[in-house]
Amino acid sequence: MKQADEQDYVDFVTHQANALCRTAYLLCGDWRRAEDATQEALIRLYRIWSRIQRKGSVGAYARKVVVSTTMDGLRRKSSQEVVGGETYFAGEQDSSDPLAVLEDRLVITQALATLPARQRACVVLRYFDELSVEETALALDCRPGTVKSQTMRALEKLRANPALAHFSELAGVGRLT
């Protein structure tokens, strides 16, 4: 790889790795798995960096690779491991957050974990990463109609979740455009 391309890659990783890891975490609910998926995605990205940089939309491609890597890990996990019950997601606590914010994060993360992987991916990409329907469809390699229907089903399940009853902002979310 050329020196300029190498520096562009390093700059991209410096500025985007945390956002990609956050997306992976919201998809899988485990920081270690999210970091592994992000690292695997960045390795794949490095291998073809020159080619995708010429095409443009590096960020969209990187997100797509992170989503597919994370979803692959979830499929492997589901056939090999059993998640450790109610306290599984409570293990990661950020001491710099106020308690209320931390509790909200845990409640949301646990609620997301109840969704099927595809629905969870749609919600995370649409509402946490703030992607359009078309960008989400590109990241998930599906049609925009699929994103809309999966998001609608996911939001219905989240609205019905009693643990999220105090999140009134969910009531207005989901006007799919």
Kindly describe this structure:
This protein is mainly alpha-helical and about 180 residues long. It is built from 8 helices and no strands. It has helices spanning about 5-30, 30-45, 50-55, 60-80, 100-115, 115-130, 135-140, 145-160. Helix 1 (about 5-30) crosses helix 4 (about 60-80), helix 1 (about 5-30) crosses helix 6 (about 115-130) and helix 6 (about 115-130) crosses helix 8. Mean pLDDT is about 80; it is low at about 80-95.
Brief rundown of the structure:
The protein is mostly helical. The protein has 8 helices and no strands.
What is the topological layout?
Blueprint: H1 3-28, H2 31-47, H3 49-55, H4 58-80, H5 99-113, H6 117-128, H7 133-140, H8 144-160
Helix pairs in contact: 1-2, 1-4, 1-6, 2-4, 4-7, 6-7, 6-8, 7-8
Query: Which strand-content bin applies to the residues?
Result: under 5%
Approximate shape: globular
Tally of DSSP β-strands: 0
What integer value in Å does the Rg equal? 17 Å
